């Protein structure tokens, strides 16, 4: 007997669709379930993509220094947040330059439930932004919590740990500290310092300590020679507890004035050290100055400097600032909050490296002293004829720029040294008679001698010794338009140098007419030179070959291009003999009594500017043994009467140094 309660269909009986209905219904359920699963997966994927986009947006914004408030929300129970303000507070000094930020990973497993997490790699370039040693970076990984709000928008939950994990406690912030290393010395030729750390005292005024700014300023002005009215105004405008800088004095200068300065109401004093030369005047135009950086220099430095730093402000100190200053040390620490501060990164400062110059300290001091008594702006340069090394370079007044190296002046008759090299190379015999007439006319332009002198029909050597302009004007027709330019370069004037400093080698234009050439032949054309350029010319004559100046010896400057064509040594020797006659019987007889080896020289009086008569500059160049020199006095009456006596004083002092 069958136990099946359902009768089996017999032939011709229609089959009931019940079992098929059940099967079909199961497929529909499965299909619906699959569709739901796919929709959920798509929703999760869409949510994950949105979370990843948000993490990428935050990374890009942070790298650009931007914090968009709409991308963030406050943590549960916290008041609304201003992410830009909070970041500035938490990051401290690091906030001044944004880091490089990239997305390391995003966890979207829970994105469908409205939450996700991301990790960001953060790297602050402390070398580029804060002056730290090259390659220094503050790098770490931080985490973001991302949440989808009721409006279906994803946002980052703001929390201090987002800025750095060490800030998770919520009360600490980051601090960036910078430490400048001691500045390296500038060395002289023998390796001893000519600029080194020296004690100084900064004199200032604290406004809250004086009830009468005008009286305070007047008292300080009397002792220090500063503008009392301007100082009083600065004191009035400053914050009550500010330090209003007045002047920085060497310690010994301060000690000499201490009794007068200490009683001044409101005067305050700060001791420190600055890299200084032996005296205020010592090669100041060349060496430059060091002082606190200006706001403009901080801005231009791209992070290398911060307010309060010390840097080179002019001269060698500015040009070689990175080498001399080294690199600051940096430390990133937590500050505030509970517990001891954490050192997150500490990098020691890198000391600077010295710069070695060619200066002979004793000779430099003598050069400065020689010019100290001159009332007009003046310059003196001394060059070693064997090497071209610049032994002394003085400019007076010391605070009026570097006349010796960068001044641009007409050379006057000192340029006759160059012209004579060109003429002798063309075959002129120094014994040849060349008339020294009162005037000489070229294409309607009349040239004359200094103070109307005339020596008649005399040998060229006499024309040279007596500095006869008309003789040179008459001889200029023997030269080509580019000949003075080419010959000057053979003596270093207008040539390419590798001195390691800013210096003017001279500009000797190709002449454009017979009149132009005649004027140029005795230094009254368009030619401009520096005192250094003319000292180099004298050194080249003395050495019988080209000398180019060297001021910075280490680091050695890049070598200049190939030298110009060489002058004939025999011609240079003949010119040297003519320069000796200038001392024996010409315009520089004041140099005849200088102790030591024979002095060879050439004086010059260069007209310039406007007026009747035209004002003149005074020059004397030359050499004695291995020492070449150039002396320049602005608005001096004549080379022989003004510059030559200074040269004699300098050479006498140099002889005393040699013993």
Topology:
Elements: H1 18-64, E1 72-74, H2 83-91, E2 100-107, E3 115-125, H3 126-130, E4 137-148, E5 154-158, E6 173-179, E7 186-187, E8 193-205, H4 213-224, H5 228-237, E9 244-250, H6 251-261, E10 267-276, H7 284-287, E11 290-292, H8 295-300, E12 310-312, H9 315-319, H10 321-325, E13 329-335, E14 343-347, E15 355-357, H11 361-372, E16 378-384, E17 390-396, H12 403-406, H13 416-425, E18 433-436, E19 439-442, E20 445-448, E21 456-459, H14 460-465, H15 469-475, H16 483-490, H17 514-521, H18 531-543, E22 552-554, H19 569-585, E23 599-607, E24 616-624, E25 627-633, H20 639-658
Parallel strand pairs: 1-5, 7-15
Antiparallel strand pairs: 2-3, 3-4, 4-5, 6-13, 7-8, 8-9, 8-10, 11-12, 13-14, 15-22, 16-17, 16-25, 18-21, 19-20, 23-24, 24-25
Notes on the structure:
- The protein contains 20 helices and 25 strands.
- The longest helix is centred in the N-terminal third of the chain and has 47 residues, at 18-64.
- The chain folds into three domains: 37-172, Nuclear Transport Factor 2, Chain: A (Roll); 186-353, 2-Layer Sandwich (Ribosomal Protein L30, Chain: A); 361-658, DD-peptidase/beta-lactamase superfamily (Beta-lactamase), CATH 3.40.710.10.
- The radius of gyration is 41 Å and the shape is elongated.
- By secondary structure, it is α+β, with helices and mostly antiparallel strands.
- A hairpin with a 5-residue loop joins strand 7 (186-187) and strand 8.
- Strands 7, 8, 9, 10, 15 and 22 form a six-stranded mixed β-sheet that branches.
């Amino acid at each position: 007997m069958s136990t099946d309660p359902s009768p089996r269909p017999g032939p011709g009986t229609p089959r009931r669709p019940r079992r098929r209905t059940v099967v079909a219904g199961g497929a529909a359920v499965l299909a619906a379930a699959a569709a739901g699963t796919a929709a959920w997966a798509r929703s999760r994927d869409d949510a994950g993509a949105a979370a990843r986009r948000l993490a990428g947006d935050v990374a890009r914004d942070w790298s650009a220094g931007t914090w968009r408030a709409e991308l963030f929300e406050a943590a549960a129970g916290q008041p609304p947040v201003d992410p830009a303000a909070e970041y500035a507070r938490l990051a401290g000094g690091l906030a001044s330059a944004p880091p490089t930020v990239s997305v390391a990973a995003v966890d979207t497993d829970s994105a469908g439930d409205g939450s996700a997490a991301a990790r960001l790699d953060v790297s602050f370039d402390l070398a580029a932004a804060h002056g730290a040693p090259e390659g220094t970076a503050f790098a770490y990984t931080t985490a973001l919590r991302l949440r989808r709000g009721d409006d279906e928008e994803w946002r980052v939950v703001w929390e201090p740990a987002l800025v750095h994990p060490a800030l998770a406690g919520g009360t600490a912030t980051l601090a960036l500290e910078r430490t400048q290393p001691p500045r390296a010395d500038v060395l002289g030729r023998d390796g001893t310092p000519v600029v080194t750390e020296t004690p100084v005292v900064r004199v200032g005024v604290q406004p809250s300590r004086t009830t009468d700014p005008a009286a305070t300023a007047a008292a300080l002005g009397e002792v220090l020679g500063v503008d009392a009215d301007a100082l009083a105004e600065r004191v009035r405008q400053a914050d009550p507890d500010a330090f209003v800088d007045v002047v920085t004095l060497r310690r010994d200068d301060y000690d000499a004035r201490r009794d007068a300065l200490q009683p001044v109401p409101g005067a305050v004093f700060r001791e420190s050290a600055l890299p200084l030369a032996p005296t205020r005047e010592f090669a100041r135009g060349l060496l430059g100055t060091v002082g606190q950086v200006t706001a403009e220099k901080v801005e231009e430095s791209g992070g290398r400097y911060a307010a309060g730093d010390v840097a080179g402000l002019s001269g060698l100190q500015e040009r070689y600032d990175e080498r001399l200053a080294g690199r600051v040390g940096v430390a990133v620490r937590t500050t505030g909050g509970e517990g001891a501060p954490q050192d997150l990164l500490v990098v020691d400062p890198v000391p600077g490296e010295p710069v070695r110059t060619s200066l002979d300290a004793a000779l430099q001091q003598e050069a400065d002293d020689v010019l100290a008594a001159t009332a007009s702006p003046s310059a003196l340069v001394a060059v070693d004829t064997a090497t071209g090394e610049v032994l002394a370079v003085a400019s007076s007044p010391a605070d009026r720029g570097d006349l010796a190296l960068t001044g641009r002046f007409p050379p006057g008759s000192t340029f006759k040294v160059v012209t004579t090299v060109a003429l002798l190379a063309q075959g002129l015999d120094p014994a040849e008679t060349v008339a020294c007439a009162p005037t000489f006319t070229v294409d309607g332009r009349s040239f004359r001698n200094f103070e109307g002198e005339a020596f008649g029909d005399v040998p060229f050597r006499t024309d040279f010794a007596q500095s006869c302009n008309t003789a040179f004007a008459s001889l200029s027709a023997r030269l080509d338009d580019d000949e003075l330019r080419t010959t000057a370069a053979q003596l270093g004037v207008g040539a390419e140098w590798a001195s390691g400093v800013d210096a003017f080698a001279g500009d000797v234009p190709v002449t454009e007419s017979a009149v132009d050439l005649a004027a140029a032949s005795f230094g009254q054309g368009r030619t401009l030179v520096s005192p250094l350029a003319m000292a180099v010319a004298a050194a080249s004559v003395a050495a019988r070959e080209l000398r180019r100046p060297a001021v910075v010896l280490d680091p050695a400057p890049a070598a200049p291009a190939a030298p110009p064509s060489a002058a004939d040594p025999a011609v240079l020797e003949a010119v040297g003999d003519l320069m000796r006659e200038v001392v024996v019987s010409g315009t520089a007889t004041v140099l005849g009594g200088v102790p030591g080896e024979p002095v060879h020289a050439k004086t010059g009086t260069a007209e310039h500017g406007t007026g009747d008569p035209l004002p003149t500059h005074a020059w004397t160049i030359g050499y004695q043994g291995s020492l070449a020199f150039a002396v320049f006095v602005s608005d001096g009456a004549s080379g022989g009467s003004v510059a030559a006596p200074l040269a004699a004083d300098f050479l006498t002092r140099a002889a005393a140094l040699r013993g």
